[in-house]
Amino acid sequence: MNHRLHGLNRLTRIILILVIGITAIGVTAWITKPMELPSDVIIIRPLPIEDNPYQKEYDEMLSPCVRIETLTGVGSGVIIPHRKDAKDAKGYVYILTAGHVVGNYANVDVTFYSYSKEGTNPPERLFSWAGTLNASVVMTDTAKDLALLEIRNPKSEIRNWATAKLAPRNYQPYLFSPVWVVGCSLGLNPRPSSGCISVIGGFSWEISAPVLPGNSGGPVYDAGTHELIGIAVWVRLYGDQLVTTMAGIVPINVIYEFLEAFNRKDAKALSNS
User: Fold this and answer.
1) 86 pLDDT exceeds 90?
2) 187 plus 159 within the same structural domain
3) Dist. CA 17–CA 124, nearest whole Å
């Protein structure tokens, strides 16, 4: 009798173990199975925050643009690469602009712009005022309508500011070549406008990108390479109306001539000091 009970208890335990195992497998399968929702239920998920797809344009064309202000007007300028001489170690910053923007002034105010994420929800990269410094006008050429500004011993953040990349001296322009113009139109924050090269001359090219008052002295870039190819200096008049889409720029080959003249002048000054 005891032997039969013992066998029965053993059989019971085996059956119980099998039942528990099968139940556990079923529960696991139920847990891991994706929940099926009714067809009329819609799940709303937040969209991923993507990087600015035009960040490269911001960094290479917008950031080097500055606003230049005198007692009589407002214009634009562009930070160009530091010269590789003794001054470079001192952190001098050079800004190229139009000669008529600075006129006969020896000093002008230069406003820099940077990005800010403050005050927005969700955060956005905003182009806003970063600070204003005084700059010396170190050279002007009224015939070329170009001027060079120098800021001595600026703060480290200005010293390391983005600079425009100059196109090669032998840059080849073509009609229909797309361009970007960046400037402080109407004295506002730097903003871009687009167009193409429409007229090619030896000392001046024309572009179809809108150029407004305040854009004078601002950079003109090759749209493909983001290289500086000119400085905006004038627009055509029709009667007393500005034709903003018929604008003249000082081309890159003339800019090189101007900068080389400054280098010779500065080298002579350094040798005599």
Assistant:
1) no
2) no
3) 61
Judge if 159 and 198 occupy the same domain: no
DSSP secondary structure, 153-217, as one string: S--HHHHT---PPBPPTT----TT-EEEEEE-GGG-S-EEEEEEEEEE-SS-EEE-S---TT-TT
Q: What is the CATH number of the domain that holds 216?
A: 2.40.10.10
- What mean pLDDT comes out for the span 217-236? 98
What's the predicted TM-score (pTM) here? 0.76
Asked if 192 and 144 sit in the same domain, the reply is no
Take residue 45 and report the two structure tokens written for it: 């998920």
54 pLDDT tier (thresholds 50, 70, 90) = confident
Distance CA 185, CA 65 (A): 12
Structural domain for 133, as ranges: 55-163
Residue 130, domain member (yes or no): yes
Count of helix runs (H) and strand runs (E) in the chain: 6, 12
Domain tally, the chain: 2
Res. 33: pLDDT tops 60: no
